[in-house]
Structure formats: structure tokens, C-alpha cells
Amino acid sequence: MSLLLKVNWGRVVAIIAVIGAAYALDGKNLLRNIFRRIPNRSVKRREALRFVPKPNEVWWRMGSKNNKPAMEVEYRFHVTNRTSKTIFLLRTFIAEPKTEGFVAIRRPKEKAYGRFPIMPNSTAEGSAEYFIDGAVRKEGEEFNATLIFVDKNGNEYKVKNIVFKYS
Fold first, then answer.
1. pTM as predicted
2. 32, HSE (Cβ side, Cα atoms, 13 Å)
């Protein structure tokens, strides 16, 4: 007897119908999930954003906030969006001492900075500014910090061990 006659065609049709119905409900994700390889846990997850400081544009100096001493901290950088989606950075802060800041991205092909998107698979210029209440360093000393940027989806991007030179 041939192999085709031994196959239970009722089961084959039922399996194809289930896969077809699932595909109709979930589209491409079904096939993507079926054929996705088990991730290698030893490989570090690829960061969506990669930050690179601009040379000589990472500094701090003494200033004032509400007529009290404060440290003005400036971080200028290039940021690469390594995804196929647009990313908006909404906020930034220094991890310790916890200090909120302001982040601005340069509009592509213009000199304007503001709340502009970082386009997919591209690099943009950015700037982050912070005012730390009080002086946590003496004038002339370096200030080391971890910066955290937050996008519109709540994803956090840590930029560790940034060395701010006194300016």
C-alpha cells in the first residue's frame, strides 16, 4: 500500500485548519513565534539606543538655583536608534543624587533642539542638562554619574560611568 493511502487525511486537514485559523487571528506573529529559535541567554540583549558622548562637551560647573548653590551639569551626545521604530525621549535623570533633567534632540538637517524623534536606524545629536541642588563636588573635581533616559513607552536607557570634567 502506498504511503499516501496510510495518511489520516482527516487529521491533516484539521491541523491545517487550526493553523489557518490561528494565522487569520494573529497574522505574521504566529509563524514568527513557531519558527523563532530559543534565545541564547549568554548573549546580551541588544540595546535599542546607543549613546556616545561628544568630545569636550561633557562638563559641570557651579551655578545657582533659586539663589542657592547648584551644580550645572551638561551632557552632549550622539544617539543611535538601532531599531526599526521611531523613539521619543521624554525625560532624563541622574541616578545619584537623583536629579531630574531636560533632554533635547536635534531635528534632522536643522539646528533646532527640542522634543524631536530619533528616527529608525539613524543617529541624532542630543543634549541633556541637569541642576543638582547644592554642591556634591568641589570646583576643579571630576563628577562621575550614571544617566538614565526614558522613552515614551517607559523604557529606560542607562548611560553608566560618565565622567564630567569641571569647566
1. 0.70
2. 4
